[in-house]
Structure formats: structure tokens, C-alpha cells
Design a protein that fits this description.
The complex is a heterodimer. Chain A is an alpha/beta fold. Chain A is built from 18 helices and 20 strands. In chain B, helix 3 packs antiparallel against helix 5, helix 4 packs across helix 5 and helix 5 packs parallel to helix 7.
């Protein structure tokens, strides 16, 4: 109690004077990553049967850099004829070379891909940041290394599948149709392609329309690795291209990562078919701070939980629950920490929060911001300046919200945090689980038994205790309830690509 | 002499077959019934024609029972499944008679009851083992202790196969409840007798009320409710109608239910730990390593 009292005390006027003004007192010299070494074509065709081929109808769309609104490249839009061609190439490759070579040879192709990604890591990181708007620090340290690590991890599984499915003789499914989102473009491609290849399937992958470029660079890497033609096909386009893949009778399995709304549509359209599916959908994770937590560490975890990748993260810790006794101190430290965040040029190595991925997403976040204000919540945004061009949204915290507020119930997919308080474990568990989602959750406490108690109660596929937003190829990922079906990553991630 | 006359002329007491919801045996709230007849057209019993309201009531009971059942120790759930097998063994003759009444020959009937008992013993043994087989410690490339373990999905609605009156329901209930789920099952329409009698077995086997709820009625009416109810986490379908499975899968998309189709294989296909896993979620927990 004594400790809590001290923590909650108001700042004295001297302490207030001691606060740093980050606009004037603490400036960073610009430290942009150079872009002169990257190799991008002006126009990208579809990657089918090992070659880049023009789409049947000559339709192309622009890929825009969301931090400058400048066009980076043109990307082909795949229509029905192109998807048919890609599925046929995948089927032929499945029946042909891919099922004839040994599992250990299959592994070696994947190891090659992993190695080439590592060799080109810098270039891929820069392109990822230009195309998607995420800070270079994140694409350099998280997205690209993890993408390589996924290929490396699953490569090793290819000739050991009997150990993954004890008591059975697992077999591949055939052609996997894979549709991925724009928040972690290359990493999601790796999450999808690596387990599919390890288990002996072939792939038709569609990247998100705002972030196709690193997937197309991956196509070049796949060529360079000499993977047999047709084993991986990459068709670019928007929702229509995706639904052509989902509804194609020649596809045996669908793996989708994206919104819960689209996930439900896909599940519905797959009804009555032979296709297996995995869905990685939305989330609205509870990040729970108990009074006995290390508050400074927890504040770092809150910031990482919601502002990592501009909050474009399905497992983001978007609902903060703070035990009532430490609410004041947590809020003060949280605001202080947010004031230090650097929002701006994602290619700058100092940047913490980059550009919002697209105009459409910025509009959606802005709408939720005004909904929050209209609902009567209190709001904090730091006074930081954002560039005049590009799509930006300052880190935002809402409190005095109710469990029924739309900003508490709905996935915003942006740098917007809501804060609620609680008194007892029972109360916070009830509030945390009161959502149709169940992807992830966070618990901050110094007491181990409390971690096991609360993590056992949370209906969520991933629970981070005293940390948040950590990922690893060996660690299964996926949700309960409306956050999806199935797991990706780790040994568990092999299962959806096998029949046994 | 008197006793002999009594046996010969005694009027038989017919059994009333009711539903099994929340550990009780209510009649359907709808007041409807259907006449069950044997192959010669002779009426065997009146069977409750369960309604949407019965189903919803059963889901409320199942959801209420789920929390405590899922928190029982694995050992305890194993003991209770074993107890079900014991009670079934003790009432074997009753089930054989009912199967014969519904058209089986004696040999098949005995086999079906024996198989059902053995299947319960099989799953009883898995209660505290599937977690070990299907969980993992994940060697992440950073300073964290990371592990994944199975947890029950929640409430499962089950549509039993038409074919086997007893084995059909036992083989679908056992893998679901051994993993800590609660369920509501729709019995075979043409062979419902053993389902309700099995409810009596469950009721005397320390299975908490609400963990298993048994309804009788028509698939045509009930399948859609079994699959579109928003408080159902998974649907387990034991039939073989293409239209039914499609309807179930369409309805499942309302709240991303897991749908599992039972392929009605032989006994060896019914005894499979991967069936338990169909009704489990995987939870992964991260914790930093440090001081």
C-alpha cells in the first residue's frame, strides 16, 4: 500500500518543469536508410510456372509509397484466366517434379530460399518499408529476419514429418491457395509458403494489393533458388483475384490471413467443398497490467503492444486494462513515453511510428477516432508533427471508455489504444473475454501463479506474460473464437497442410 | 402358481423416453412427439420431437457446465469416463435388448455394446495423455520460455449418425468430453432409444449435469439450430448428407465455428486421439527468462 501511494502522487511543480519538450529540447539528426541499392522494376507481371508473364487482360495497378504518396511500381491484376493458369501450373508441379523428388531435396530448395532472403535482407527491408510504410527498424530487425527464419525452420521439417504426426503417415493435400494481408507482407508470405512446401504441397499465393512488391521480389528469389516451375505461383490483385483462388475447384486448401469479415465470407464460400482451410483473422487483445507489475517494463510493453507497426497488427494489445490502484501512475508514464515516440519518415532509423498503410486505412482510423470522441471518451495524442505528404496518424490513447464503446469492441487496426480499469482478477478476465475475438492477450505481474491463473482463463491463442508482440517460427500462432481457425508456426503449423 | 400367472398376464410397464438436459429428464417443451416403430410397423415408444427451445435450453446448460468441467483435473475426467464404461457394462443387457428392439440381431447388438464400452475405456485413458503428446515447448530464438498446450474449444453441438443407436453417440461424445468440452447431441431419429438410456448411464456416472445433453427429434428441423447458434464453438457432424454438411458449414461462418465431419469409419477410426484434438484450441504462452 505504501508503495502504491507513493507511485500515485501528483507531480510537484518542479518535477513538471523538469519534463522534456521533445519538439525543442531533444531532436534527432536525420538518419535515413539509403535506397540507391535496391532493384525494382517499373512494372511487375504475374509469377506463374516459374516465369513472369503478362496478365491475359493488360490491367495493372499502382503500388504507392504511403509515406510520400508516390508511385513505386505498376503491378499486374490477375483475372480468371490468370488464376486458372496459376492453379494449373501448381497442379502440374504437384503431380510432377515436386512429388517425385525426395523430402530432403525439397528441404534443400527451402534452405536455399532462406539463405537468399538473408543475403538480400537489406534490400528487402528497404522495399518493405517503402511499399508498406513500416519503420525500417522493424522491417530490418523483425519482418525480414523472421521471414528467412521461417523458411529455415520449415525446411528442416520436410524430411521429418512422421515425427510431427505421431501414429500416422502424413501426406500432402495438393494445391494450397494462400491470401495474405498488407501488414507484414514478406513475413506473411513466408508464414504461408514455408509450411506448404515443407509438407509437399504447391502454392498459389496472392499478396495484398497495397503491398505486392516484396512478394514479387520473393518470386525472383524463388527463380534464383531454381525451385521447380509451378511449385510457387504468385498472382497479384485485389479482393476479386482472392475470391477466384478461394472458389477455384482445383485448389485443395485455403490459407487466409485478414479481417474477420472476409474470413467469414471465405468460410461460407468453402461450405460444401472438399477444401481444408485455416483462417487467421482479427483481434482486440486485452493487455492487463496488475498493480504488482514492474510499471516501467509494463509501459514499454503497452507501447510495443499497440504502436508496433502503426498498430496494423491483428494481435495488437489494443485494449489496455489497468488495475485501479496503479491507474494514475501508468497513465502518467504512458503519456510521457508516448511523447518521446518519433512519428515520420519510415526509412529513418530513428522512426518509431511510420506511415499508415493506405488512404483507406487512414480514413478508417480517423473515423474511429471521431467515434471515440463522440462516445465521450477522453483522448491523448502527443504534440508531435507529422509530414505534410503521406498518410499519418499520431499515437492515440482513449480512456473513460465503456465496455460497450465501439472503440473498445471493434478492431481499429491502427495506433489507437483504449484504457479501462479493473479491481479483481475475475472482473478483468470477464472484460477481457467479452469480445468475439480471441487472438492474443498480455499479462503484467510479478507473481508467477497469477500469470498461470489468468493465462489459463483468457480465451486467446497467444498469451504474452511480461512481454508483448513476440514472434518466432517455432511458436504456434492463431486464434480462438472469431479470430480464426487453425495455427501457423511451429510443429502445429504443419498440420493444416497435411492429411493423416 | 400365483407367480406364474402374474408373469403370464402381467401388464408390462412401458418406458417413457424423454430428453436429457442439464442433468434432468424433461419432456420436450413443445409437447410434440413421434411414434417409433420397429421394422414390422409395431409401435415401440413415443419419442420427444425436440424443438429449437429445447436446444437453446441445452446450450445454456452446456455453457454453464463447461467452465467447471474443463477445470476438473485430467485424472478426474479420466476416472469419470471410466465410470461411464462401468455403468454401461452393468446395464449391458438393457442396451442389447433396445438394439434388438430397433432391428439389430443379438450378435450385432452385443458387439455394438461391447465396442461402446471399450471405446469409453480407450478415451478414459487418453484423458491425461493427449496433452503430453500434443503440447510443445518451443525453442524460440530469444530469451523466452515458450510453450503450447491444448485447451477445450467450449460447447460442441453434435449430430449423431443415423446408423448405430449406441455406438453412434458414444463414439462422438467421448472424444469431445474427455478433452473438457460440454456438448449437446441430437440422437439418431430412427434409432433413438439407446441415446436416452445412455443419458441414464451418464446421470449415474458422476458426469456433472449439463456436460452432455441429449435431444431427440428431426434433423430437418434441428440441424440449422445446431449450427447457427452463436454460443456454439464447434459442430461435430456424424451424418452423410451433402446438403446437411453444406448447411452446417454455411451457418458455421456466422461466428467462425469449427466444423468436424465424422467419416463413420470402423472402430479403429473412432478410436483416435486426433479426434480429441479436433475439439481443442492451442494456446501458446511466452515469458521472458531473466532476473
Amino acid at each position: 500500500m505504501e508503495k502504491t501511494k507513493t507511485q500515485n502522487k501528483e507531480l510537484t511543480s518542479e518535477e513538471q518543469k523538469a519534463e522534456i519538450n521533445f519538439k525543442t529540447d531533444w531532436q534527432y539528426a536525420a538518419s535515413p536508410e539509403s535506397t540507391d541499392h535496391i532493384q525494382l522494376k517499373k512494372k511487375y507481371d504475374l509469377f506463374i510456372n516459374g516465369k513472369f508473364v503478362a496478365p491475359a487482360k493488360p490491367k495493372y495497378f499502382d503500388s504507392i509509397n504511403p509515406s510520400t504518396e508516390e508511385k513505386i511500381a505498376e503491378v499486374a491484376e490477375a483475372d480468371e484466366a490468370d488464376v486458372n493458369k496459376a492453379v494449373k501450373a501448381a497442379r502440374d508441379a504437384y503431380k510432377g517434379k515436386w512429388s517425385k523428388i525426395s523430402a530432403s531435396e525439397r528441404a534443400k530448395y527451402m534452405f536455399r530460399i532462406a539463405r537468399i532472403i538473408q543475403e538480400k535482407a537489406r534490400e528487402l527491408a528497404v522495399i518493405e518499408t517503402m511499399d508498406g510504410g513500416k519503420p525500417i527498424r522493424e522491417s530490418r530487425d523483425i519482418d525480414i529476419p523472421l521471414a528467412a527464419a521461417h523458411f529455415f525452420y520449415y525446411a528442416g521439417w520436410a524430411d521429418k514429418l512422421n515425427y510431427a504426426v505421431p501414429g500416422k503417415t502424413p501426406k500432402p493435400l495438393g494445391v494450397a491457395g494462400q491470401i495474405i494481408p498488407w501488414n507484414f507482407p514478406l513475413l506473411m508470405a513466408a508464414w504461408k509458403i514455408a509450411p506448404a512446401l515443407a509438407t509437399g504441397n504447391t502454392v498459389v499465393l496472392k499478396p495484398a494489393e497495397t503491398t505486392s512488391l516484396t512478394a514479387l521480389k520473393l518470386a525472383e528469389i524463388i527463380q534464383e533458388a531454381d525451385l521447380p516451375p509451378g511449385v510457387v505461383n504468385i498472382v497479384t490483385g485485389a479482393g476479386k483475384t482472392g475470391s477466384l483462388i478461394v472458389n477455384h475447384p482445383g485448389v485443395d486448401k485455403i490459407a487466409f490471413t485478414g479481417s474477420t469479415d472476409i474470413g467469414k465470407l471465405i468460410q461460407k464460400s468453402l461450405a460444401g467443398t472438399h477444401k481444408k482451410y485455416t483462417l487467421e483473422l482479427g483481434g482486440k487483445a486485452a493487455n492487463i497490467i496488475f498493480e504488482d507489475a514492474s510499471i516501467d517494463q509494463a509501459v514499454e510493453g503497452i507501447v510495443n503492444g499497440i504502436f508496433f507497426n502503426q498498430g496494423h497488427v491483428c494481435c495488437a494489445g489494443s485494449r489496455l486494462f489497468v488495475q485501479e490502484s496503479v491507474f494514475e501512475i501508468v497513465m502518467r508514464k504512458l503519456k510521457d513515453r508516448i511523447a518521446t515516440l518519433v512519428v515520420g519518415n519510415p526509412l529513418d532509423k530513428n522512426t518509431d511510428i511510420g506511415a499508415i498503410n493506405s488512404k483507406a486505412q487512414l480514413d478508417k482510423i480517423s473515423e474511429y477516432h471521431s467515434i471515440g470522441l463522440k462516445e465521450g471518451a477522453e483522448c491523448y495524442q502527443p504534440a508531435c508533427e507529422v509530414p505534410s505528404k503521406g498518410y499519418w496518424f499520431r499515437p492515440t490513447v482513449f480512456w473513460n471508455v465503456s465496455q460497450a464503446s465501439r472503440i473498445v469492441q471493434e478492431e481499429i487496426f491502427g495506433p489507437v489504444l483504449t484504457v479501462q480499469t479493473f479491481r479483481t482478477i475475475q472482473e478483468v478476465v470477464e472484460k477481457a473475454n467479452n469480445t468475439p475475438y480471441g487472438l492474443s492477450g498480455g499479462i503484467w505481474t510479478d507473481k508467477g501463479s497469477k500469470i498461470f491463473k489468468v493465462s489459463g482463463e483468457l480465451k486467446a491463442g497467444v498469451v504474452w506474460a511480461n512481454t508483448f508482440n513476440k514472434f518466432d517460427p517455432t511458436s504456434p500462432f492463431g486464434g480462438y473464437k472469431e479470430s480464426g481457425i487453425g495455427r501457423e508456426g511451429g510443429l502445429h503449423g504443419l498440420m493444416p497442410y497435411l492429411q493423416y | 402358481m400365483a407367480a406364474e400367472n402374474t408373469t403370464k398376464n402381467r401388464l408390462e410397464v412401458l418406458k417413457t423416453y424423454k430428453l436429457y438436459i442439464g442433468g434432468e429428464f424433461p419432456r420436450t417443451e413443445s409437447g410434440r412427439f413421434y411414434a417409433l416403430k420397429n421394422s414390422k410397423g409395431v409401435q415401440i415408444a413415443n419419442i420427444c420431437n425436440g424443438s429449437r427451445k429445447d436446444f437453446r435450453e441445452a446450450i445454456v446448460k452446456a455453457r454453464a457446465a463447461f467452465g467447471k468441467w474443463s477445470k476438473r483435473t485430467a485424472f478426474n475426467r479420466g476416472q469419470i469416463l471410466y465410470r461411464i464404461a462401468e455403468m454401461l457394462e452393468a446395464r449391458k443387457l438393457q442396451f442389447v435388448d433396445e438394439l434388438i428392439l430397433q432391428g439389430s440381431n443379438k450378435k450385432d447388438a452385443e458387439q455394438e455394446v461391447n465396442a461402446s464400452i471399450d471405446l469409453l475405456i480407450y478415451y478414459s485413458g487418453w484423458a491425461d495423455k493427449y496433452q503430453q503428446v500434443f503440447s510443445s515447448v518451443n525453442p524460440v530464438a530469444s530469451s523466452y520460455f515458450n510453450f503450447s498446450l491444448p485447451e477445450p474449444s467450449g460447447v460442441v453441438s453434435i449430430i449423431a449418425s443415423e446408423k448405430n443407436s449406441l455406438l453412434g453417440i458414444v463414439s462422438m461424445i467421448a472424444p469431445v468430453i474427455v478433452g473438457g468440452n460440454a456438448c449437446v447431441i441430437l440422437a439418431s431419429y430412427s434409432k433413438p432409444l439407446c441415446a436416452i438410456t445412455f443419458g441414464e448411464v451418464l446421470n449415474s456416472s458422476d458426469v456433472p449435469g449439463g456436460v452432455v445433453n441429449i435431444l431427440t427429434g428431426t434433423k430437418k428441423e434441428l440441424v440449422s439450430y445446431f449450427s447457427n447458434h452463436m454460443d456454439v464453438n464447434s459442430v461435430f457432424y456424424g451424418g452423410d448428407s451433402k446438403e446437411e454438411i453444406k448447411d452446417i458449414q454455411v451457418n458455421a461462418s456466422l461466428n467462425v465455428k469449427r466444423v468436424v465431419q465424422n467419416k463413420n469409419g470402423g472402430l479403429n477410426k473412432m478410436m483416435d486421439p486426433y479426434l480429441i484434438m479436433n475439439f481443442q484450441e492451442t494456446k501458446t504462452i511466452w515469458h521472458p527468462i531473466g532476473i
